[in-house]
Automatic annotation (TrEMBL):
It comes from Defluviitalea saccharophila. SUPFAM superfamilies: P-loop containing nucleoside triphosphate hydrolases. Residues 5-240 form the ABC transporter domain. The keyword RNA-binding does not apply. GO terms for molecular function: ATP binding. This is ABC transporter ATP-binding protein.
Length: 250
């Protein structure tokens, strides 16, 4: 498998205080990684550094072999817009636009696909995530789960190589969490590489690999293999992950 992302000797400090210490890992195309760890262990900081939203203090981040940690802000935002998608705990959709307009906006901004392709992608994504019927609704008129599904559509409009999520289900109830995770598993199955940060073991059990951060360093990692929607296998994955998490003494 091709290496999509490589993190080498990554350090990050805030005003001299080290937060990430010598982080090294590789992400292959098609992986689904969940980053876990105690509050304050540096999960969000790591996600922001590897996705170019923040700069590492030292170290390298290679995207398909190209060091993105040295790019100018302008070049970095171009990479983010065209090759990466982002979802957060809250959807951050624009208030005065419809769901559909929010989804297509980054498509027009990136200017890599034609108007027809952008609209077609939006239709396919909204259909896939079950929000097609609310496409013309104002964002105030839909549920939290629907907003998050719209945020996923928006993140995928330019067909990114990798999708990053910081607690993407953190504000959702268990039903909406399951729906969002089903969508993420489907997208991943179709080839998009995913890295999310989560506190929720049930959510992390959908990933193919779990990385545990402790005190700013990679403490351990667990291979779960590709997720399949089989009840018995799901229970086994959750059990395996839970007992592994119990052994992480942070
Ligand atoms: N912009 C910043 N300036 C100063 N310190 C920061 C900044 N961002 C994060 N930190 C510090 O870095 C450490 C790691 O923070 P981070 O947000 O990455 O943790 P986290 O693992 O995502 O926690 P949580 O699970 O609560 O979201 C914390 O001690 C935090 O206070
Ligand atoms: Mg965080």
């Amino acid at each position: 498998m091709k290496i999509l992302l490589e993190v080498k000797n990554l350090y990050k400090s805030f005003e001299g205080t080290p937060v990430l210490k010598d982080i090294n890992f590789r992400v292959e195309e098609g992986e689904f990684i969940a980053i876990m760890g105690q509050s304050g262990s540096g999960k969000s900081t790591l996600l922001y550094c590897i996705s170019g939203m923040d700069r590492p203090t030292s170290g390298n981040i290679l995207l398909y072999g190209k060091d993105i940690s040295k790019l100018s802000d302008k070049q970095m935002s171009e990479v983010r817009l065209k090759q990466m998608g982002f979802i957060f705990q809250h959807s951050y959709l624009l208030k005065n636009l419809s769901i559909r307009d929010n989804i297509v906006l980054p498509g027009f901004k990136a200017n890599i696909l034609s108007r027809e392709q952008i609209n077609q992608n939006a239709n396919i994504l909204m259909e896939k995530t079950g929000i097609h019927s609310v496409g013309d609704h104002d964002i105030k008129m839909v549920s939290g789960g629907q907003l998050q599904r719209a945020a996923i559509c928006r993140a995928l409009i330019n067909q990114p190589d990798i999708l990053f999520g910081d607690e993407p289900t953190g504000a959702l109830n268990s039903g909406a969490t399951k729906e969002v995770m089903n969508i993420l598993n489907e997208i991943n199955h179709q080839g998009t590489t995913i890295i999310i940060v989560t506190h929720d073991a049930k959510v992390a059990s959908r990933a193919s690999r779990v990385i545990f951060l402790g005190d700013g360093a990679i403490h351990d990692e667990l291979n779960l293999g590709k997720y399949e929607e089989i009840e018995e296998k799901n229970l086994y994955r959750e059990k395996k992950l839970t007992s592994w998490l119990e052994r992480q003494d942070f």
